[in-house]
Amino acid sequence: MRAKISYAITAAVLLFYFVLVGSRGVMLVQTGTLLTVTFGVAVLILPVIGLWFLWKNTQFVRKANALATELDAEGGLPVDELKRTPGGRIDRDSADEVFAKRKAETEAAPDDWRSWFRLAVAYHDARDTPRARKAMQRAIALHEGRPVEA
Predict the structure, then answer these.
(1) pLDDT digits (tens, 9 = 90+) for 40-70
(2) What is the rounded distance in angstroms from the CA atom of residue 53 to the CA atom of residue 34?
(3) If residue 22 lies in a helix (H) or strand (E), which one and from where to where?
(4) Quick check: 89 and 73 in contact, CB under 8 A?
């Protein structure tokens, strides 16, 4: 729940920022000189890119959460079997062990979105965020029946 609240606050702050920057861009365009119009258009592009990125990221999170809910209803969510340090951090060797298991599971069933979801969680636990995201994107694509790149 804390992550959802943090995400919502961050999204709200970004939206406020995009509105603020967008208004400055409009003001520059309204000035009417070639230089200010050029800068105004350039400034207006930034909020558009930011809004697109925020939308895509929000869609990704929503779809990943839907997969987690479905997998939980099936009783297939990965069990937290990781060892932790006294400070609460995940033990690296433990994460590598679980990762090897999840990778073998995914190699055995490469077209199963569930195994890709669990692999994404293992990547995340191993602190490999880019690969975790790619594995989750693959799980989402398989779940939706979309073609997946090799």
Answers:
(1) 999 999 999 999 999 999 999 999 999 999 9
(2) 29
(3) helix 2-31
(4) no
